[in-house]
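Q: What would this chain look like folded?
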Amino acid sequence: MAQERLPMYLAREVLRLRYDCGLSNREVARACHVNRETVAVYLKRAEKAGLRWPLPDGLSDAELEAIMFPAPAVVQGVQRPLPDWQHIYDELRSFKKTCNLTLMQLWVEYKEVHPDGLQYSQFCERYHRWLSKRDYVMRQEHRAGEKMFVDFCDGLFLTNPQTGEMIPTHLFVGVWGFSNLTYAEAVLNQAAPAWSRCHVHAFNYSQAVPRALVPDNLKSGVTKPCYYEPKINRSYAELAAHYGTAVLPARPYKPRDKAKAEAGVLVAQRWILAVLRHRIFFTLDEMNAAIHELLERLNSRALRRLKKSRRELFEAQDRPAALPLPARPYEYAEWRHAKVHIDYAIEIDHHYYSVPYRLIHEKVDVRLTATTLEAFHRGQRVAAHVRSYVRGGHTIMDEHRPPEHRLHLEWPPSRMIEWAAQTGPSAATLVERIMTRRKHPEEGYRACLGIIHLGESYGPQRLEAAAARALRFNTCTFTSIRSILAAGLDRNADAHEEDSQPSLPMHENVRGGEYYH
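A: My prediction, written as structure tokens:
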């Protein structure tokens, strides 16, 4: 079965992280939640096509895909993929006793995925060779400016001044890998907006950006935790792209991957939360002001072994090797999916926004900020609106309407009445009455346009006569006008005569008028 292709926005991210951020294939694979073989294939295709980062301006996703996957595909020799020996080891250790898992079964599963892979004898030999050299505990070496480890922990309590209710908070902690420079901030929840805002504040605090972020697998950062292919929250990935950094989530159930964050949380608890444990705070700003004061004391305190403070180490080593802050700060954006309705509009928070009518029944990606809304279809922006919070409201752009709908809007009530006046006074009165009887004049547009088409078929004289008859009998509807014209009632010579009863015939039983005097 052919491997499913990556979305082109993810292929762009692979190229950016490899060529712009300088990450290894393994780190790119972790950041983009794909396996290393996929990263290698896409880099090889890009190199063969002569693509480098940045990509040419205006290159669409469809054009990029056509360049990287030209047709017909060239069949190349397939290199035998090696198993992930760590995964094999973990599987054997986890299921050896419970279900008597063997290397034979793991080899069978490996061959199902890679039919051209190693044979059983080579599979066993290479596994035992790897096992004999396995390092059970590897000390992590952190390079200057490379990584920041981020995590949440339980924080202090806010006090409601009216009710005395105790409101729990969460403490965001960010630690630079080399210098251990620490940032901490209290928030009310761990949702994506607070998660992104804490990152922005952490970067502003250090006035630098790490080349990689190492978060835990919370939902705000990683939507799908996985040992090999974690899926990054799209808003978090957008934040990383804005600052030019990468996201390398810690593996699930591997606390050593984020040992710096665990140690940073412990330090923050001892030097910040413990000091403030008896303080009463009524607002979050008041609490963060106290945290910031202790944070400066913590980062300025000399480390026992190095005889230098975290701040001194950061300024001397981390900052020169880190990335600079961009010209403008990141603005949090939320991504959603929406389907275009038959009225060429999408519904976001009970408000309706238009997109080009050709996208009816299509699915679009929606990017939301506090003030704007953007809709994307296959990576191309197709609509942009000022965000509205009016429930049930509509934000419609004329260029998104089909031509016939734009033509319909070119007929305001005054224009329709002017047109009807050219036919005759009865037609003008009829059109005006149709629109005034509706709650909104636009509701009568269709009926008036239908009457206009009847005039084109039957002529202005007959339409004027039909309008006079409809006014006379107070049947001011399109259906009535159509029936009058179809039955020819407008041609009745007595249509404009006063309706008088015919005289009764003479009869001896009929009393005359003098009888009543």
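The CA atoms of residues 179 and 313 lie 5 Å apart.
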